[in-house]
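Friendly challenge for the regulars: who can give me the C-alpha cells for this chain first? No prize, just bragging rights.
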Amino acid sequence: MTPPESALSCLAASVLAWIIWAKLLKSHLSPLRQLRGPPTPSWFYGHVHQMTHAHSVPLMQTWLSQFGPNILTRWMLMEPALWTADPRALEHILHSPNYVKPWEARVSASRIIGNGIILAEGHDHRKQNPAFGPIQIQAFTEIFLEKAKELRDIWSSRASSSGEPVTVNVVDWLERTTLDAIAETGFGLHLDSLNMRETPNALQQAFHDILSVPPEVSIFRLLMDMVPQLDFFPDERTRSINNARRMIRDMGLRLVEEKRRELSFKTDDTRSPQPGRDLITLLLQANMDPDLPEDRRLNEEEILSQIPSFLVAGHESSSMAATWCLFALAQNPTVQTTLRKELLAIPSDTPPHSDLLRLPYLDSVVRETLRLHAPVVFTLRAALADDIVPTSAPFTDCHGTTRHEIKIARGNRVVLPFLLVNQSKALWGDDALEFKPERWTALPEAASKLPGLWSNLLTFSSGPRSCMGYRFAISELKALVFTLVRAFEFELAVDPAQVTRVGMLVQRPAIVGELEKGAQLPMRVQPFRRDD
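First reply, four minutes later:
Bragging rights claimed.
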C-alpha cells in the first residue's frame, strides 16, 4: 500500500471510529435514558424491525400496558427514541416546528414518491399549494360519484350474468376506481382503468411497481437509499421503481406543458377553450398569481414533484381506506344494513357534496373506519434542538423518580404510533378494537382530547405538517361507500383470520399463505334487492 493510500485508509478508519464513538456517547448521555422501555432486540436495528412490521400494533399495545404512554425505544444504531402515545406530548410535538422528518425517513420515501408535498418541511411545506380547499372538493365529488357508479355497473353486470353473487378482489377494483378519479380530478386525464381487462395501463403498472410490498429494513437497503449511486447491481424491484418514476416524470412534463399552454391561451385569447379545474391547473394558476410573494412560488422541479404525491395521496390511500371500510362492513352485517337504510333514503344516486355531508351514520362509519383501520401505522420525527415535552400525567422513570415532563436532546428520534393511538383502550375504552360507528355519538373524554386534524383522530396527523388532502380523501371515501353499499351486500370470501396486513408506507390487506400474490381482499358481492 502506497503512503497516500495508507493515509486515506487511516483517515477513513478514524472518521468511522469517530462516528461510532459519537453515536455511543450521544446514546449514553441522552436524557431519554431515564424512561422505561422494552429490551432491545438488536444493537444495529434497535426496535425498528418490531415497529415497522405489519403486525406491530399488538406488540405496541403490550408496551403501552407495561410501560405507559411514554417509552424509551431504540432507533438504528441504538439511537434513543421517544415512543409516545400521550395526547399532550403528541400535541406538543406535532404542533412544534422543532420536530421534522429525519433524513432516513425522507430518503427512503423520496426514492418512491419524490420530494413533493408529503415530504416537504418548514418553509418548503408552507409554500406548497395543492388546491385541496373545500370549494374544489365540492366540484370533485361529482367525479368521485361517477367513477363509483362505473364500478357499481361493472359488478352488477358480472353478478347478473352469473345469476349468483360474484367474487371480486376489491383491492384491485378500488385501486382502478381511485386511479381514474385522481387522474381526472388531479390532471384532467381520462384513463378508463375500470374498463381495462387483463392488461393494466402504463400508469397502473407504474403504481403496482412503486407500491408493491417493500422489503424489510436492512443494512444493505439503508445504504442504497442513502447513496443510490452505489447500487451498481439494482434488484428487480429497484429497477421497476426507477422505470416507473421516469414514466411518471415524463407524463408530468407533458401535463405541465399542456396546462401552461391552456392557461396562456386563456390569457391571450378569450375564444380559446377554458382551462380545466384539475389540481395541477389550479396549482399553476395559483403559482402565476402576481400577488403571490416570490418566496412562495414553486419552481419547475417543485411543481413536477407534486404529481407523484398527488397520485399517492389521492389513489393508494383512498383505495385502501375504502377497502378496509368494506372489510369492516362485511364482518358487521347489522352496521351494513343500518347504513344502507340511511343511504337508500336519498333519492338520487348523484347527490351534491352537501347532501353527503348531512348523512350522520355514513359519517360515523367513515370516522370509525379511519380510526380502526388508519392506513399509516406510525410516523417518525427528529428534534432540531433540545426540548422539554409536557405529559398528560406524572410518570415514574426507570430510577423510581416521579416526573412531569420529558427532556429531548437535539437529534433524538420521536416515534408517533398513529394507529396504536387510534386503537388505544386507555383512550377509547375496552371496546377500542371493535368496529362501532355508534361510539361517535358520545366520545370518551380521553379520546375527545386527542389533537387530530380531523375528528379526534391521528389518521391525518395534526399541526402544520398534517395532511392537506384530508378533505379529498374523506369525500372520495364517502362517495365510494355511498354508491357501493346502496347497490350491494358484501360478505368476505375468506376467513377473516386469514386476512393480514402488508406494507410500511400504507397498510394493505393480503391473505395468509398467499403473500406472493400481493395485496388482495376477496369478497362476495351480491346486488341488493329492495322488498318494494
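The first strand starts at residue 70 and ends at 74. The first helix runs from residue 3 to 29. Your move, everyone else.
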